[in-house]
Amino acid sequence: MSTSHNADCRAAAEWVAGELRRLGCREVEFLASGTHPVVWGVGPDVPGAPTLLVYGHYDVQPPDPLDQWTTPPFDPTVRDGQLFARGAADDKGQVFCLLKAIEAGGGGGRGSPLVNFRFLIEGEEEFGSRVLFELLRREPERTRADAVLIADMAYIAPRWPAVYTTLRGLCYAEITVRTAKTDLHSGEFGGAAPNAHEELARLLGRLKTPDGKIHVPGLYASVKRPSKRELATWKRLPFKEGEFLRHRVQAKALTGLKTHSVLERLWALPTFEIHGIMGGFTGDGAKTVIPAEARAKVSLRLVPDQKLKTVERQLTAAVKRLAPAYVQASVTFLHGADPATVEVTHPAFGLLDQAFREVVGRGTVPARAGGSIPVVPALGKSGAPVILTGIGLPDDRLHAPNEKLDLKQLWDGIKVFRRFYELLGEKGV
Ligand SMILES: [Zn+2]
């Protein structure tokens, strides 16, 4: 976690706390305080009504590369009905939406509240939620609720709201390769001395082959193919591979295991991605160095039934096995999360479905998510259904330059959640 935005994160936490107070929360607290506190809130008491725990995060991904933003990432700008800013969709804009829905009369604020709200808005989601994890381990009663609501996701396509049944887990690691005591001169030693970058490149090439297969022994052992029924549902979703390639990926071809559909590759298979390679000489001009050390930042996304701890062991073993004996290879783990599975049969899902149907004209489709929200399993520990949904659109460019949120989505979202709170209060679960 970079410390350069600590003051900004603190300001975001203060903003959330201020909003919670304005909504009439009888308890607003910074938990596990510090620069990125978890903001905890308890709404006004509504005897007999269900308790809804609202989870979200106010931290965001780093905005770079800055030169690719049309307007600065932290100067929210509206263009063509879209709000451009880092965090517009992930997740500040969506937290804003959930809070405004309360103010709009779905409970609290000016109207009389309909449900007992609890809030856990954290500031370390993008870095593994370590503080919140520890907090919930110490104080599991914080998650006691009749339902948990998370709006940190997107519609599956315009006009197609969704609830998510799985989240992939994450295993983020740094692989270090050392081949000599110090860097060497390529004129003096080139041709006979090992080169750390060359060894790292070969190692990475062996870990995942061009067919998309990941060569980490045991990795696929617990990966289950989705049921025929689930695969049939996916076929009916408005997802077109060609369109996905042309408009979303904007590359020349899709890669990965050709034996599986693109949606399976995105939702139901583990991944191995290289995020950055460091070491050697990367400055301007030329320097003829044989690097002694090279490092790569990599991550694997994990699917249901895989376990982070097991995958960490498997990756370490694979790296050791694939590196030649003269190469010192090691793996350190930066952060990670187990995958999550969510049952969407609880009555609370029916209420959200109704709210979307009334406001947007279409109910929620069950889908899987390729991304990770580390703390989801912990939020569901008390047995409450975890409703994973969102008002974003697939082209919101999360974690990338020019992240945006469609304002129509935001206004609709406020109406949807307002109605959901109402239904929850009236009908209970
Ligand atoms: Zn998020």
Model description:
With 429 residues, this protein is of the alpha+beta class. The protein folds into two domains: 6-167 and 339-427, Zn peptidases (Aminopeptidase, 3-Layer(aba) Sandwich), CATH 3.40.630.10; 169-223 and 270-337, Alpha-Beta Plaits (2-Layer Sandwich). Helix content is 31%, strand content 22%. It has a six-stranded mixed β-sheet, sandwiched between helices. The protein has a four-stranded antiparallel β-sheet with strand order 11-13-9-14. Helix 2 (92-106) crosses helix 12 (407-427) and helix 10 crosses helix 12. It starts with 5 loop residues before the first helix and ends with a helix. The structure holds zinc ion. Zinc ion (ZN) binds at residues 57, 90-91, 125, 152.
Span of the ends, CA to CA = 39 Å
Q: Note poorly predicted spans.
A: none
Q: How many domains make up the coordinates?
A: 2
Looking at the overall shape, the CATH architecture of the largest domain is 3-Layer(aba) Sandwich
CATH superfamily of the largest domain: Zn peptidases
Tell me about the biggest sheet?
6 strands, mixed
How much helicity do the residues have?
Answer: 25-40%
Structural class: alpha+beta
- CATH class value of the largest domain: Alpha Beta
> Measured on Cα atoms, how large is the radius of gyration?
23 Å
Unique bound compounds: zinc ion
- How are the strands of the largest sheet arranged? 1-2-6-3-7-17
Shape: globular
CATH topology name of the largest domain: Aminopeptidase
Quaternary state of this entry equals single chain
Overall residue-averaged pLDDT value: 94
- Give, in order, the helices and strands: HEEEEEHEHEEEEHHHHHEEEHEEHEHEEH
